[in-house]
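sorry for the late reply, my laptop died twice this morning and i had to redo everyting from scratch. anyway the thing you sent over, i finally got around to it. pasting the sequence first so we're on the same page, its 110 residues, then the predicted structure underneath. double check i copied it right bc i was rushing
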Amino acid sequence: MSEIPSPGCDSSSVELQIDRVVVASLEQATVSVRCLRGPVRRGARFDRLRGSAQAIELRLTQAVVYGHRMAALDTGLTAFVTLRGQGVEHLRSGTVPSGWQVIEGANPSP
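ok and here's the structure:
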């Protein structure tokens, strides 16, 4: 179940918290995430790395929850997602001392 957006909140705005970068290449990464603001739909575009000036332009191409491909991730779910695009090299696994990265973006237009 998704959070009810606050008045004036952009309902297309989405956030994923990076737990662990599992596999990464130049333009694609498989990442363990927690959905902080959803639902996050396949095709969502992420263009901000919270607290960083690093440029990213990533698109969610696949989400897998407990071995099942999902079309969307609701707030609170953890999943393995595949992200493609520019800025994959800026993603890092979270730790207690360094904290966890959050990527911010928007769902595709319906």
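The two ends are 19 Å apart (CA to CA).
thats about all i looked at so far, will dig more tmrw
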